[in-house]
Design goal:
Layout: H1 8-15, E1 18-20, E2 29-30, E3 40-44, E4 59-62, E5 72-75, H2 78-89, E6 105-106, E7 111-112, E8 117-118, E9 123-124, E10 129-130, E11 141-142, E12 147-148, E13 153-154, E14 159-160, E15 165-166, E16 171-172, E17 177-180, E18 185-188, E19 192-195, E20 201-204, E21 209-210, E22 215-217, E23 223-226, E24 231-232, E25 237-238, E26 243-244, E27 249-250, E28 255-256, E29 261-262, E30 267-268, E31 273-274, E32 279-280, E33 285-286, E34 291-292, E35 301-303, E36 308-309, H3 310-321, H4 323-338
Parallel strand pairs: 2-3, 3-4, 4-5, 6-9, 7-10, 8-11, 9-12, 10-13, 11-14, 12-15, 13-16, 14-17, 15-20, 16-21, 17-22, 20-23, 21-24, 22-25, 23-26, 24-27, 25-28, 26-29, 27-30, 28-31, 29-32, 30-33, 31-34, 33-35
Antiparallel strand pairs: 1-5, 18-19, 35-36
Length: about 350
Amino acid sequence: MGIEGLTLANIAEMIGGTLKGEGSRIVTSITSPEDPCPGSISPLWEKKLIPHVHPEAVLLTNKGWITENGQGVEVEDPRRALVKLLEFFDTDKNYSSPSVHETAVVSESAVIGENVTVGPGCVLSDQCRIGDGSVLAGNVWVGKHVSIGDNTLIEPGVVIYDRSTLGRNCIVHANAVIGSDGFGFMPDPEKGLLRIPQIGIAVIEDDVEIGVCSSIDRATFGETRISRGTKIDSHVKIAHNCKVGEYCIIVAQTGLAGSSTLGRGVTMAAQSGVGNHARVGDGVIAAGRAGITDDTPPNSVVSGFPAIDHKKDLRQIAAIRQLPDLIKNVKNIEKRLNGPEPENK
């Protein structure tokens, strides 16, 4: 994801920012300020994330936000500067006709069905099945530098985009999409909406199941991660930079907005959702159509929109159903208090 020789000073010049720290520092990637890696730069424009910034993060941020001994670049508008930087790191996708590229590493025990495309640099491990012709119809597209673990099954119509990683014993059901571009746009006075390039990856850990027609976006930068043992139903949308903990259950037509986080063992019932950057604690149960808009403490049971404690939500629903009778009673009380209507003479 990087280009050799891009320095912090180069970035400051490219985006019209102010250099803070060592200008010769090499930058090869873009990562979250909470989880930086060597050679990375981390965008930051939300004050609520400042307490979570890793002390070694090299920041692309607002003027005055980098500490005295910190490293990075300060600009007037970090979001707009990020778009320019993402465009620099973005890479072209290569859509080829059905074939297995000569540089792909394919285990002898792997099974590849008909009309399957496997791009350059891919690794297909032992006993994985990609459009197995004995059961499935093929028509799978696997991009560049994709890794698929042992005994993982990829059903027909699946698309796996560049640099995605799938662990062992996964099942990806028909027409699911992994690693597609996230939905990233920002207002622009000239173009109306400016597209934000998506250069991150999608990581699917071991024993994950992904249902029919579900979609998991690549990260804008860094990674979208689905942790071990999670089960995802059909028609689920998981947006860019989401983190899903181990052994979660995500039921049909659920949506996770960008950069939201599910803890371990979370259950999201049908048509529920999580808003941008919201953190859902371990063991939370979200009832059907619950809309989580803010951080939710562990082991909560929530429902409604915005989602609140389930028992409180049920009491509110019961109260709303009593409103017609309550209004009628209030009108009767008003009549008795005001006395009989005066007779017209």
